[in-house]
């Protein structure tokens, strides 16, 4: 039975099968007697012919058995010969078996034709000696099977010969066959049965309903094994591979293309498919993008909340919108924007001139910046939401806005042109840097005076015209006189733009009467006609140029004010003259000191009152000069008043006057109930909402803008130099000249000898004393930080040296706790290393105003890292030991006010502190959210042993 199995499984093309023939084979034996003999055997009722030999009595046996002629199949050169045989054990014959052997030999002889019985040993060559694996000793036959490959063969056919040299052998079966690689299906390709010879490349074909670009192929080895299939057959659309075939997709399923994928369930919003479907048809109102066939989606709905915002710089605005509520089931949502100029009747495209950033189409984010817009036009922007299926839908989901540039500051006027003149009039015109929006009428303020008008004292008198057009004719002037003009635009609320430079124009001299030159009548007539024509033309021109003058007045301009430049008192040779140019002398009798409220560098600061006729008694602050001063000190003391006296702004501390005529010089200013800003904020964590803090910052920025407009560089802007009144209005103070060098506790001597408050000062000012409004902006950034951190010391306990190093390495203070992100961003802008890139105070004021106008903009809070931002010491003194006591810890985080509460609650050890949870802290009596956070964060910091406190975020 094992042999049968073997035959079944061998892939073969059989040339000869002794057993299967079932009849006498007609093989030649030689010698005819005593050699191989044919034996009939019946196994299970079937008759078999086998050959056997057993001539062991004598040596020198040479018994041959030769097959019939076996045809070789053309194209093959090797055949397999499989023998099954039994060999008897020589030992079982005892001494009788002198010549007994246990092997026999296989021979082959090639021939081009059947030679019949013409058998010649000499034509055979030996293939192999056949030895049994097991010899048979008893009644149980041990059948051996052996396969030999014979070749190469070249003639038409061959004979096999079996030479017996004295063994007792029964040849049960002989099979001669070619090995083949059986027909096979591999990866959806069919390959035919192939004779295994040498390694052979075989081409196949894809199964039904499958296709391939290249012909599938595979190799058949000499051993009859298929190897290295190269097959790319894929089932057609609507079919999927199931085993070795491609089956049609079931109803309700589909497969869109030739691929190895399986059929998919029809997507949502489609009609059910039939068997073998390559697509599922979309339901009404749904579409499919060609790029992804396995979807069915509806177009998105319209963008929402389309708004615009004018950006700084000329001609730029940003559009924002919210994504549509319905995306329609696709994620490739995009937007496109179209700009039109519309009037009541029709719209026209805005044209090529305007630019979109990042572009007008394929916008992935719901925003776009439009630039090169004209400030006097109204633009209509239409934003369309699109997805991969939009092209199939007639509906256009759009949002539309009509908007115009909306500048808060009026345009600039740079040039004034003289258009016409006469002895008594000048016609002037000018062009603003941008045209006003259609709906807004810019007005202009024109000031002029006679150039040589003698200035009375400090006062110059100007005539002022308020005009609603950018041209004017001024009449009633004096002939042959030079006039000085300047003009600026006024914004919608009358807010002024910056002035043009002063321009000078002359009126014509009066025409001298011409004597001694008698014109003829003709000339008179011609001249007369010309004059009439001129008058008519001029009249027409003038009609066109009619301007509404809204308001004419004269203003007295103090000479130093229109110049808007602060004057350094040191430019005066005598400081005593300088001070009286700018400051009122107060009679000491109207002043009453009440109480010491502070100590300045030159002496005590008192709260007091001043009697002012008509205003009663007003509270004032009185700075005094301590006795024993030198003349130099007196001048330095009063120089602050000389400077302050030049300023007039709600966010600059107001000087009432000075007392210089008495021994004890005094400076009297408005009284600021809440004192210095840094002290005011300390301990008020969380009490003042961010909105109010930003309001305070806005005030400081406005004051600083005023100072920078006046070309005054403060050099020591810090929260300690800002005063706060009862309404929480902040005013910039401290204008000493020598102050930066001398009286500031923060001042540190630099290598060049001056004193500089390092942690408030911009790097370029520290490095090479480049003090500018831009360095004041840096300091303003630090003030913002101080304010948002409720009076925290900038850079905590780092040394000045460490601060300078950190700044140079591009580290910046981290966001204070609960600081609105927009405010922190502004701080970072103020701390840009390149001073020209920092915002100007004008930009800062505008930005803060914008934030204050939309308080939601303050809701986003900047990221806050408690470990670096509070700089909570996790150990006392940095030596790795914990705080020894709870009070010591509370003190370190400036929460000493809770010492008693903690003690009362029985929290006396740091271990207990570490175990506190939020509600425990609340139960102890910490209610203010700011304090709560500070304590909770500190505990977090204490727990975090790894917190690195010496480095802080960029
Ligand atoms: P100063 O010499 O200007 O730095 O003033 C010293 C201190 O006096 C300040 O820190 C304030 O606490 C207080 N002070 C100065 N000016 C005023 C004022 N106008 N109103 C209230 N307090 C003031």
UniProtKB/TrEMBL annotation:
Cellular component terms (Gene Ontology): dendrite; plasma membrane
**Record-annotated Protein kinase domain positions:** 591-852
Active-site residues, record numbering mapped to chain? 716 (proton acceptor)
First and last residue of the signal peptide: 1-22
- List the GO molecular function terms: ATP binding; transmembrane-ephrin receptor activity
Q: Where in the cell is it found?
A: Cell membrane
Q: Which domain of life is it from?
A: Eukaryota
Topological category with respect to the lipid bilayer? Single-pass type I membrane protein
Q: Where does ATP bind?
A: 597-605, 623
Please list the residue ranges annotated as the Fibronectin type-III domain.
Answer: 299-406, 412-510
Is Endoplasmic reticulum included in the keywords of this UniProt record? no
Looking up Gene3D superfamilies in the UniProt record yields: ephrin a2 ectodomain, Galactose-binding domain-like, Immunoglobulins, Phosphorylase Kinase, domain 1, Transcription Factor, Ets-1, Transferase(Phosphotransferase) domain 1, Tumor Necrosis Factor Receptor, subunit A, domain 2
Recorded hits in CDD domains, A to Z, give:
EGF_Lam, FN3
Q: Name one Pfam family in it.
A: Ephrin_lbd
SAM domain residues: 881-945
Q: Which InterPro entries match?
A: Eph_TM (IPR027936), Ephrin_rcpt_lig-bd_dom (IPR001090), Ephrin_rcpt_TKs (IPR050449), FN3_dom (IPR003961), FN3_sf (IPR036116), Galactose-bd-like_sf (IPR008979), Growth_fac_rcpt_cys_sf (IPR009030), Ig-like_fold (IPR013783)
EC assignment: the record states 2.7.10.1
Q: Which reaction does it catalyse?
A: L-tyrosyl-[protein] + ATP = O-phospho-L-tyrosyl-[protein] + ADP + H(+)
* Positions of transmembrane segments: 521-542
Q: Does the keyword Cytoplasm apply?
A: no
Key words, A-Z: Angiogenesis, ATP-binding, Cell adhesion, Cell membrane, Disulfide bond, Glycoprotein, Kinase, Membrane, Nucleotide-binding, Phosphoprotein, Receptor, Repeat, Signal, Transferase, Transmembrane, Transmembrane helix, Tyrosine-protein kinase, Ubl conjugation
User: What protein name applies here?
Assistant: receptor protein-tyrosine kinase
């Amino acid at each position: 039975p094992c042999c049968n199995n073997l035959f079944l499984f061998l892939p073969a093309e059989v040339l000869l099968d002794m057993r299967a023939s079932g009849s006498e084979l007609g093989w030649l034996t030689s010698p005819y007697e005593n050699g191989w003999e044919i034996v009939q055997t019946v196994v299970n009722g079937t008759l078999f012919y086998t050959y056997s030999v057993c001539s062991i009595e004598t040596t020198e046996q040479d018994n041959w058995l030769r097959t019939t002629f076996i045809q070789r199949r053309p194209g093959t050169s090797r055949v397999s010969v499989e023998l099954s045989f039994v060999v008897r054990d020589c030992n079982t014959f005892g001494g009788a078996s002198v010549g007994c052997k246990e092997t026999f030999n296989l021979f082959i002889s090639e021939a081009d034709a059947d030679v019949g019985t013409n058998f010649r040993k000499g034509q055979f060559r030996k293939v192999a000696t056949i030895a049994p694996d097991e010899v048979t000793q008893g009644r149980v036959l041990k059948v051996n099977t052996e396969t030999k490959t014979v070749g190469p063969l070249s003639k038409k056919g061959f004979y096999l010969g079996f030479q017996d040299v004295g063994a007792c052998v029964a040849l049960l079966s002989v099979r001669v066959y070619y090995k083949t690689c059986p027909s096979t299906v591999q990866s959806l390709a069919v390959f035919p049965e192939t004779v295994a010879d040498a390694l052979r490349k075989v081409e196949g074909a894809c199964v039904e309903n499958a296709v391939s670009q290249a012909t599938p192929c595979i190799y058949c080895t000499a051993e009859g094994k298929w190897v290295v299939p190269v097959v790319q057959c894929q089932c057609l659309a609507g079919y999927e591979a199931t085993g070795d075939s491609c089956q049609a997709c079931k109803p309700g399923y589909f497969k869109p293309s030739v691929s190895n994928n399986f059929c998919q369930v029809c997507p949502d919003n489609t009609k059910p498919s039939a068997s073998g479907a390559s697509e599922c048809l979309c339901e009404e109102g749904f579409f499919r993008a060609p790029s992804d066939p396995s979807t069915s989606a509806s177009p998105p709905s319209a963008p929402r909340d389309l708004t615009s915002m004018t950006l700084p710089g000329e001609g730029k605005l940003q559009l924002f919108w919210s994504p549509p509520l319905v995306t329609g089931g696709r994620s490739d949502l995009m937007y496109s924007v179209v700009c039109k100029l519309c009037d009541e009747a029709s719209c026209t495209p805005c044209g090529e001139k305007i630019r979109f950033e990042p572009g007008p189409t394929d916008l992935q984010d719901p925003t776009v910046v439009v630039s090169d817009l004209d400030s006097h036009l109204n633009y209509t922007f239409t934003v369309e939401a699109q997805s991969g299926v939009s092209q199939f839908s007639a509906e256009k989901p759009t949002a539309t806005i009509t908007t115009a540039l909306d500048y808060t500051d009026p345009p600039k006027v740079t040039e004034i042109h003289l258009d016409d003149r006469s002895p008594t009039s000048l016609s002037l015109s000018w062009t603003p840097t941008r045209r006003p929006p259609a709906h807004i009428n810019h007005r202009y303020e024109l000031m002029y005076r006679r150039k040589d008008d003698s200035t009375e004292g400090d006062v110059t008198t100007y005539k002022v015209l308020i005009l609603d057009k950018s041209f004017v004719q001024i009449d009633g002037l004096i002939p042959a006189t030079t006039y000085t003009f300047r003009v600026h635009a006024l914004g919608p609320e009358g807010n002024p733009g910056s002035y043009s430079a002063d321009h000078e124009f002359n009126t014509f001299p009066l025409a001298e009467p011409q004597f001694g030159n008698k014109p003829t009548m003709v000339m008179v007539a011609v001249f007369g006609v010309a004059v009439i024509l001129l008058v008519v033309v001029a009249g027409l021109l003038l009609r066109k140029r009619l301007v509404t003058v809204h308001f004419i007045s004269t203003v007295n301009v103090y000479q130093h004010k229109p110049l808007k430049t602060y004057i350094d008192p040191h430019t005066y040779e005598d400081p005593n003259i300088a001070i009286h140019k700018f400051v009122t002398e107060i009679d000491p009798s109207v002043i009453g000191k009440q109480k010491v409220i502070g100590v300045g560098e030159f002496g005590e600061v008192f709260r007091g009152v001043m009697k002012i006729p008509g205003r009663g008694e007003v509270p004032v602050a009185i700075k005094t000069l301590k006795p024993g001063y030198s003349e130099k000190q007196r001048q330095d003391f009063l120089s602050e008043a000389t400077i302050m006296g030049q300023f007039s702004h709600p966010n600059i501390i107001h000087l009432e006057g000075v007392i210089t005529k008495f021994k004890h010089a005094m400076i009297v200013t408005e009284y600021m109930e809440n004192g210095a800003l840094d002290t005011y904020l300390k301990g008020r964590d969380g009490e003042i909402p961010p909105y109010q803090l930003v309001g305070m910052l806005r005030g400081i920025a406005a004051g600083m803008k005023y100072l920078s407009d006046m070309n005054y560089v403060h050099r020591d802007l810090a929260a300690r130099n800002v005063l706060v009144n009862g309404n929480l209005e902040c005013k910039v103070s401290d204008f000493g000249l020598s102050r930066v060098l001398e009286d500031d506790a923060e001042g540190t001597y630099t290598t060049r000898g001056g004193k500089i408050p390092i942690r408030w000062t911009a790097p370029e000012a520290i490095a090479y004393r480049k003090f500018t409004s831009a360095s004041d902006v840096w300091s303003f950034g630090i003030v913002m930080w101080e304010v948002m951190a409720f009076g925290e010391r900038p850079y905590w306990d780092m040394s000045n040296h460490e601060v300078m190093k950190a700044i140079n390495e591009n580290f910046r203070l981290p966001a204070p706790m609960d600081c609105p992100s927009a405010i922190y961003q502004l701080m970072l802008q103020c701390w840009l290393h390149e001073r020209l890139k920092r915002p100007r105070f004008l930009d800062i004021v505008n930005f803060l105003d914008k934030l204050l106008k939309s308080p939601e903009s303050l809701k986003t809070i900047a990221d806050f890292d408690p470990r670096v931002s509070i700089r909570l010491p996790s150990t006392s003194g940095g030596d790795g030991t914990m705080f020894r006591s709870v009070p010591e810890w509370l003190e370190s985080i400036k929460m000493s006010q809770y010492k008693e509460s903690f003690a009362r609650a029985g929290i006396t050890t740091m271990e207990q502190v570490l175990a506190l949870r939020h509600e425990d802290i609340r139960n102890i009596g910490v209610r203010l959210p700011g304090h709560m956070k500070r304590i909770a964060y500190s505990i977090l910091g204490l727990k975090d042993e790894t917190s690195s406190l010496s480095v802080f975020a960029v």
